[in-house]
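Section 5: illustrative case.
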């Protein structure tokens, strides 16, 4: 019984921390001992979405001027709720569905990030390539932080993060710096080494592709997640997907992660994983602003600070 109890504790621990391995999604540098600057409501949409993006929105999502730029959903198993009807969405959905069980914890987010005033004719290919370079800067994830609701402090999400040649030798590689280097890498499987403050380092397998209208990325853990050498989550225990569709008015960004988990402690798992997803979104928006792909936006660090209208209403009740 004691051994079973220890195993159960390890399972709960890994589920709480597994979202830290998302490769694929964002933060300002904040002191680990200081709280964020208070509740920050998400920015609101200030322009109508282009008709093609408006038509792509899933049921229940109304991105209109005055709406929050972000909609989220948390559920246990079942179909994805926020996947937009865009080119590449079926690839992301199939990637998540391939290993999802009825007990998997699923976190989804859909955001519309307004673009800056256009100074030159809009070039969708250039926008997609710029997005591809951002998503492939794995080294920039090292040191990003998230809000730990249990500790009430900001903590480092990744203590190490860099591209490697494969899961076995793990020789460090540089991230692409040019569009030409990006296009060479796109057809290839990429591997990323990531280390957080609790678990042993893990290698994540990443695959990217770019269509005429979207950029997508799918990730899965290629090595088991271990605690002091003990496997606590198998290969493919955590899968994520990203889909970005740029337009002259802004970027529609979809994110989903599916986590194998025990049947208890689900509310705590969602809390931890959701705040880490928000941290990734901070990283992306800050980087995209610096690249002048979007306008500056405000986002909370704590999922609980999101207004009700930013959370998709789901009838399923989470229980411990």
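Designed sequence:
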């Amino acid at each position: 019984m004691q051994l079973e109890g220890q195993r159960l504790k390890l399972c709960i621990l890994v589920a709480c921390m597994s979202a830290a391995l998302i490769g694929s999604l964002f933060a300002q540098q904040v002191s680990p001992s200081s709280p964020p600057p208070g509740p920050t409501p998400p920015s609101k949409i200030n322009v109508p979405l282009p008709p093609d993006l408006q038509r792509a929105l899933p049921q229940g999502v109304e991105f209109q001027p005055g709406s929050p730029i972000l909609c989220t959903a948390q559920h246990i198993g079942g179909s994805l709720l926020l996947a937009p009807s865009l080119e590449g969405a079926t690839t992301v959905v199939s990637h998540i569905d391939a290993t999802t069980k009825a007990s998997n914890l699923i976190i989804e987010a859909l955001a519309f990030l307004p673009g800056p005033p256009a100074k030159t004719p809009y070039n969708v290919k250039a926008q997609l390539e710029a997005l591809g370079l951002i998503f492939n800067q794995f080294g920039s994830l090292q040191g990003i932080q998230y809000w730990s609701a249990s500790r009430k402090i900001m903590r480092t999400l990744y203590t190490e993060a860099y591209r490697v040649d494969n899961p076995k030798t793990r020789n460090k590689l540089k991230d692409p710096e040019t569009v030409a280097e990006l296009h060479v890498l796109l057809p290839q499987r990429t591997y990323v080494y990531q280390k957080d403050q609790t678990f042993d380092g893990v290698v994540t397998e990443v695959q990217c592709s770019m269509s005429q209208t979207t950029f997508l990325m799918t990730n899965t853990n290629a090595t088991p997640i271990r605690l002091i050498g003990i496997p606590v989550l198998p290969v493919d225990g955590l899968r994520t997907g990203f889909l970005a569709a740029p337009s002259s008015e802004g970027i529609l960004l979809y994110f989903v992660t599916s986590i194998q988990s025990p049947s208890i402690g689900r509310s705590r798992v969602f809390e931890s994983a959701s705040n880490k997803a928000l941290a990734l979104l901070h990283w992306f928006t800050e980087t995209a602003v610096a690249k002048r792909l979007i306008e500056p936006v405000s986002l909370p660090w704590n999922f609980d600070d999101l207004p009700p209208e930013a959370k998709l209403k789901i009838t399923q009740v989470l229980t411990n």
